[in-house]
Amino acid sequence: MPTNLGIDPKLLEKALAIGGEKTKKATVNRALQEYIVRRRQKRLLDFFGKLDWDDGYDYKRERTRR
User: Fold this and answer.
1) Looking at residue 57, what DSSP letter applies?
2) Sign of CA dihedral 19, 25, 31, 36
3) What is the DSSP secondary structure assignment for residue 48, as one 8-state letter?
4) pLDDT at 12 > cutoff 90
5) CB within 8 A of 19, min separation 6: which ones?
């Protein structure tokens, strides 16, 4: 799907220089992928301190084959 975007040329050049991608398209796609990953990680951080842990859970026992 073709899309026209007004991307800051200085930012794009910096991203090309440090990102290692060969094209502007690849640079923008990589940046979007990294943005998505970071946002998903941030949502996971919201769970810290909100989950109840079962103190009786034995993870080592769960590893054994049955």
Assistant:
1) -
2) negative
3) T
4) yes
5) 27, 30, 31
How far separated are the first and last CA of the chain, in Å rounded?
Answer: 50
* DSSP-based three-state secondary structure for 1: coil
Residues 15-56 pLDDT 10s: 999 999 999 999 999 999 999 999 999 988 888 888 788 888
Taking only Cα atoms into account, the Rg of the chain, rounded to an integer number of angstroms, comes to 21
12 close to 27: Cβ distance less than 8 angstroms:
yes
Residue 13, amino acid: E
The candidate with the shortest Cα–Cα distance to 5, out of 22, 25, 23, is 25
Amino acid found at 11? L
